[in-house]
Design a protein that fits this description.
It is a single chain. The chain is α/β, with parallel strands linked by helices. It folds into two domains: 2-150, 3-Layer(bba) Sandwich (Glucose Oxidase, domain 1); 154-358, Rossmann fold, CATH 3.40.50. It contains ten helices and 19 strands. The strands form three sheets. Strands 10-12-11-13-14-19-18-17-15-16 form a ten-stranded mixed β-sheet, sandwiched between helices. A seven-stranded mixed beta barrel has the order 1-2-8-6-4-3-9. It is globular.
Length: 359
């Protein structure tokens, strides 16, 4: 069956439907990973977005029950150059096409993803639509595409009730604020000897302050919409609780400390982004998924220092705050699809909790 991808600027691509029938609207973004497509599909940070994979062949190792990062597929739609129809891997339990159809995800293959990526790089991320409408006409959907906005993103993906995931011989109790968390953050904390209690994004900070440390997860949407959470982070900081923030958690902590966040032209999405640790003078390859960033201008060196920066565009990738036990990073050190270069940050979090406990 034919499918169409149409962008807000009027560009239309014709391809083949490889998922569910129907029509979806979202913000069109691209991911540069060669693998990890199932992790990307289930990453809550993609809420409200249609994801285009730049690597030309997707699905060649199928799907399984172990590589998911949340309870369901989170992307609004999926775009590929070519989807593998006959994957082969000892871990697979099905094909990507079967997975997309079973989860009612509208997806398209057979379009020029290089051309699509060039458009987004030149004009910036924009709204778009994937449809299997046989009588497709752009004018029919034009206003709908233009008016689309991602709203209540964190509220839509956070857990509804707290829950605890324990590990053997745990030494630490960590509260994880679920802004759209990935399962591998919980797995990593467990591996480092932490019992993890996951809390909904808008939880009272008093509930979190009794733990050895607090982790602020990744998540979707504009950080400036999360005013209540920013206020809660301020209250947590005032209690002296060790805090480690990732991605959206990094951005919200910056807002809580008087810094500014802005939307990027097309964001960072993929598992091949070089980030330099200033103190170590060493560059790591990182996994990233974000469309907003913390502005470097306005960072007062008496109150905070930039610990990491992006080697491609020099944007802020890590901040350590002075006078409070808080540090954050923009990238994903827990990246289940890899790379694992920055897993040392979980050790840093453990050491921070040790220092605060023994102080």
């Amino acid at each position: 069956m034919k499918a169409y991808l149409a962008l807000e600027d009027g560009t239309v691509f014709e391809g083949i439907s490889v998922g569910a029938n129907g029509t979806v609207i979202g913000e069109i973004v691209f991911n540069t990973s060669m693998t990890g497509y199932q992790e990307a599909l289930t990453d809550p940070s993609y809420y409200g977005q249609i994801v285009a994979m730049t690597y030309p062949l997707i699905g060649n190792y199928g799907v399984n029950e172990e590589d998911i990062e949340s309870e369901k597929i989170q992307v609004s739609g999926f775009i590929m150059r070519e989807m593998c129809k006959r994957p082969s891997n000892w871990r697979m339990t099905g094909t990507l096409g079967e997975y997309l159809t079973a989860n009612n995800v509208v997806a398209i293959e057979g379009i020029d993803t290089r051309e699509l990526t060039k458009i987004i790089r030149e004009k910036g991320a924009m709204n778009g639509i994937i449809t299997t409408d046989g009588g497709f006409e752009f004018e029919k959907y034009k206003d709908m595409i233009k008016d689309y906005k991602i709203k209540n993103a964190v509220k839509s993906v956070t857990c509804k009730e707290p829950y605890t995931v324990k590990t053997q011989n745990a030494k630490w109790r960590v509260a994880l604020l679920d802004l759209g968390t990935k399962y591998n953050i919980i797995r990593k904390l467990n591996k480092f000897g932490c019992d993890v209690t996951v809390f909904p994004a808008f939880s009272d900070p008093d509930l979190l302050s009794g733990f050895d440390g607090v982790m602020l997860s990744n998540g979707p949407g504009d950080p400036k919409e999360c005013k209540e959470i920013v206020d809660n982070i301020k209250k947590l900081q005032s209690k002296g609780v060790p805090i480690f923030g990732i991605c959206l958690g990094h951005q919200l902590t910056a807002l809580a400390n008087g810094l500014n966040t802005i939307k990027m032209k097309y964001g960072h999405r993929g598992s091949n982004h070089p980030v330099t640790h200033k103190e170590k003078n060493r560059t790591y390859i990182t996994s990233q998924n974000h469309g907003y960033m913390v502005e470097a201008d306005g960072i007062d060196e008496r109150k905070a220092e930039i610990t990491h920066f992006n080697l491609n565009d020099n944007t802020v990738e890590g901040i350590r705050y002075k006078g409070i036990p808080v540090f954050t990073v923009q990238f994903h050190p827990e990246a289940s699809q890899g790379p694992h270069d920055t897993g040392y940050l979980f050790n840093d979090f453990i050491r921070l909790m040790e220092v605060c406990k023994n102080a």
